[in-house]
Structure formats: structure tokens, C-alpha cells
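User: Hello, can you help with two protein structures?

Assistant: Certainly.
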Amino acid sequence: MVHNPTMATARRQRFVRATLAWLLGATLVLTLLSSLSYELVFVVSLIGLLVVVELTAPFRVTPTWRSRLKWLIAAGLAVFGYIVIRRILEILPPGCSEWPTGSPRVGRSRSSSSSLSPSRSR
């Protein structure tokens, strides 16, 4: 199979056009629904990027520019994880989102925890 740089450029342009169309369409829909926020635009754009990457993936040979997309996707998923954790912490009651300090639990003394362990009688 002969490498055709024109065909590779056309595929890259198709990928960029599809991604931009998704981004603009998602922003327009969120604006029409009065739900425009940075988080929603980011999440919907990430979903669109993942869909476009999968729908335009070549079957045999992966071009170099496509292999670099994994870093962009990894960064997007990391930001998405941060958004999800932040949203979960907003939903939880005020005392639940604090990290444990290592002190014994309320209502349990050290002696009561040792009585729960199975005893060996021989």
C-alpha cells in the first residue's frame, strides 16, 4: 500500500471538522437550554471528542498524530475525574467530606473493639 499524504491530510481535516462541529453544536444546545457552564461544556466536549476519535479511527495503521491524542484524552479524563469528585463533595453533608484524622471512632472504645475479635479457647 502506497502512503498518500493527501489522503492522510484529508482524514485529519475530517477529524478536526467533526470535532469542531461537535464543540460548536454542544455549546449551542447548552446555550439554548440555558445550561451553559464551563463544566458542562467541558464534559459534553470530552464525550464528543471520544465519540469522534472512535468513529474516525483507522483500521490498520495509526498515524502519529492520532497516537498523540491519548495524552489529550488522558488529561481530559483527569479533569473529568476532578469535576466528578468536586460535585460529589458538594452533594455530601458537611461532615462527610472531611478526611479521617486517625482518632478513634465516636461511640467505640478500644476495649469494645478487642471484644469483637474471635477468641481462641483451647
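That covers the first. Now for the second protein you mentioned:
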Amino acid sequence: MCRRSGTPSARHRAGSAKVTPGRWPGPVEPDGLTELLLRLHRDYGPVPLYVTENGAAFDDEPDDTERVAFLDGHVRAAHAALSAGVDLRGYFVWSLLDNFEWAEGYTKRFGLVHVDYATQRRTLKASAHWYARTIAAGGLTSPQPSESCAA
């Protein structure tokens, strides 16, 4: 579900990257996050930066391998910017729980935790387990998932 070709996102070829389901336009390109963080660092100096609300809605529950690939690609992109000197102090996933979205109601699911709206039962998705392992390890320790992110 994401592209890690190294090609700048501004020059992507039409149809070269996949998109998320729903109304969100444009391809999923983690390299765009690296480019943005590097540009902010270049244009505004070494200021502390935080990535907030980074995520996407997928048709999942509870095996959200596309979200795992999305997050893996974006965490790697954030790490690339950090390695290049960006003062990146935090990365926050959107969202912990499936929730109500103003534009989409309950139809789109962004959460690491699936919420059964009828019973309010919460179930950890594959992405929640992946994120917990990543945090416990202090960062990414294995190659990126090949399921959707292979270039």
C-alpha cells in the first residue's frame, strides 16, 4: 500500500502508487514525509518537530496488513529524516481507536484497535501488535514488510 522507490513524490507517475480506500486522493508515498521533514529543517532551521495524526483508513479488521505496511513505511521515512539531521522528537499514529470521523461518520476505520460499535468491545489489530513491538524494540529492527511496500 506504500511506495519506497526513492523517487521524489512530486514527480510520481500517475498510477505508480496505490491509494487508500475512500475519498482520500493521491498515492501513499512515505518518501513524501521524509521530503517534508527535510524541507522544514532546511527552511526553518533546526527546530524540534513532531509528526502527529499520521495514519490512514483501510478496510481491515482485525488483520490490517495494509496499515502495518503504511505505518512501517512512514516510520522508516521519519527515521530517514532523523538520520539526515532533522530534530524529530515524536511520531504519533492516528488513531488509537476506531472512532467517529466528522466527514465519514463510523464508516472509515483508522484505529490500531478495532471497536465493535454495537458492543463497544475493543480488539487489538495486527497494527497494534506491530506498533507495540516496534516501540518495545526501541525502533524498527527488521526489514520492511514485503506484502505491500516492496518497491
